[in-house]
């Protein structure tokens, strides 16, 4: 087989169960589902730092957060890695193209891409040193006679939702797809293979899908509710005044159902746009339709979406850290079997390099592993354990080992423990079981041994024993 083309599609803030194939009975994602079912759907995939910038550093480098140096959210830190995924592929003769969100500094640094059509978000922020470049905002103003693309007023981190108030072609996700199609069908060099990273902003807020999609999920609102664990207060009094972007509640059920309609609608819209992209390349391109193309799909992190009265990301819970991840394609060998191997975003770089036949330099400090042996059916496992973390106000570490997940809040020394096999929604905290807790503590202690930014003292740890974490400071 000729060297395959590689299409990496990433969404922003899409949780694992925000796909029909991954157990969501309300959400329609037939295109994602089919690509995943025909390829390898990894059902235990995690982001090891559940927020945008750190996770995208991991995608670029194959490095864990502690290796590339960002273990939380910081918008201003410049990044200058020696090796990147697009850079390695470009050096091997691939044409490398970004369409969408990169979220690294300096903004116009190419990080190995031959060319970038870059839009961090649907909003224009020309007065910000860190977000002022936005190719979508420039295009939108030309289409609308200079109108601000944020005129609808829906916040880029909030739980308020409404239908997109414009023609569908002006929507950010539609525009990104149009630009990716333009690259595939008009501007790419057909004499060499391509690496295209199509990086959607959605379903990250603002929760503004086209009206058709918002109305579809509004009709299903009574069938959906966020998960509230045993450790979460059921009688929390919902009071006016909780900031619309607050990561902690309590939240009202009706407002979270609005958020659900916006969130699911954005994902359903992307699913249809992926079909548009595939049709444009494989159906309408004649002889190019026989090109071998691997399609990788994942998200930088998830979204709590009201589960346990939490919203947004940065936490070790399944809603925030467990992400969709599949490898499919066209005109390439595919096993067509799901995998429960424990995988993470670090694995993208070595996987793509093996697809392309590119050797990773010995000094690249890559923490990920190639998933191609699993895709080919040669191996069933990748690693026994996975460690994730996020600094900041809700600073936490988590370890997934076997069927258990252990979470430690470093600021309060609070601990939780869940059986993901029996309790995949993390509704019952088992940290009161000392026998279960002991080996998970040992695993985390080994993971962060020598770290100067955390002090992990077993004598000071506080198992929550199915109580709410005080770190969230919820009001009841």
Characterise the protein shown here.
The protein has 476 residues and is an alpha/beta fold. The protein has two domains: 5-380, Alkaline Phosphatase, subunit A; 393-472, Arylsulfatase, C-terminal domain, CATH 3.30.1120. The protein is built from twelve helices and 13 strands. The chain has helices spanning 30-38, 52-61, 65-68, 85-91, 135-144, 172-187, 211-218, 253-283, 318-321, 348-356, 372-375, 434-447, and strands at residues 5-12, 40-46, 95-100, 115-118, 194-203, 293-299, 325-330, 339-344, 385-390, 396-401, 404-409, 414-419, 462-463. Strands 4-3-5-1-6-7-2-8 form an eight-stranded mixed sheet, with helices on both faces. The protein has a five-stranded mixed sheet with strand order 9-10-11-12-13, with helices on one face. The termini are far apart.
Q: What is the strand and helix layout of this fold?
A:
Layout: E1 5-12, H1 30-38, E2 40-46, H2 52-61, H3 65-68, H4 85-91, E3 95-100, E4 115-118, H5 135-144, H6 172-187, E5 194-203, H7 211-218, H8 253-283, E6 293-299, H9 318-321, E7 325-330, E8 339-344, H10 348-356, H11 372-375, E9 385-390, E10 396-401, E11 404-409, E12 414-419, H12 434-447, E13 462-463
Helix pairs in contact: 6-8, 7-8
